[in-house]
Amino acid sequence: EAGVVQSPRYKIIEKKQPVAFWCNPISGHNTLYWYLQNLGQGPELLIRYENEEAVDDSQLPKDRFSAERLKGVDSTLKIQPAELGDSAVYLCASSRGGQYNEQFFGPGTRLTVL
Amino acid sequence: AQTVTQSQPEMSVQEAETVTLSCTYDTSESDYYLFWYKQPPSRQMILVIRQEAYKQQNATENRFSVNFQKAAKSFSLKISDSQLGDAAMYFCAYRFEGGGADGLTFGKGTHLIIQP
Predict the structure, then answer these.
(1) H or E element that contains B55
(2) Could you please report the per-residue DSSP string of A54-103?
(3) B58 DSSP assignment
(4) CB distance B45–A55 less than 8 Å?
(5) Is A85 on the interface with B (CB under 8 A)?
(6) In angstroms, rounded to a whole number, what is the distance separating the alpha carbons of residues B90 and B40?
(7) pLDDT at residue B98 in the model
(8) Any chain B CB within 8 A of the CB of A38?
(9) Widest distance between CA atoms in chain B
(10) Per-residue model confidence (pLDDT) at position A2
(11) Which of A17, B33, B40, B116 could cross-link to B88 by cystine, CB 3.0-4.6 Å?
């Protein structure tokens, strides 16, 4: 079974530019998560999707961040405009649901804002 | 709000020896899940072991085992017969499913170094 796929792996942009990250979850996984991981820290949840619905976006900075999962499969996370403090690793995870609900993580996208 | 604390930023152990990583957490819930994740330099988070709070028996997965102390809100990871491939960041994580919440709350991590 293929794992969670994320692209790009690395992205370098100038501040105030827009940027987008893409995630393809494991087939059959209805729940998708986006996490932010700052250097030297653990990941922090940004948003959780159940199929197409964003059921928990309380930690997403909505002034500049947006996300979508239009067909309940792939998801895109966007930042516009990017700020220096957005430099971090953006992780995507997916789960099937159920009792154990193990989350499988992608390799992440490392964003550097100059 | 739930918090997870890992008080050891870095640990070092000789190959083949045993090491214990500490984790404490704060929650007012009685039913929840605890996890240890491993993150090698490739950044891919890998689940090492999980524990359901309602289970008194400590989880074990091959060389990895936990010491779950619910009253003390402590959840340590023991790695036996350490191997070079165990070198990574280790994150303790908490999950409570309820009230619309279902994400993981992570600690800051412990960097594990394996000395050959």
Answers:
(1) none
(2) EEE-TTS-TTTEEEE-TTSS-EEEEESS--GGG-EEEEEEEE--TTT---
(3) P
(4) no
(5) no
(6) 9
(7) 67
(8) no
(9) 47
(10) 81
(11) B40
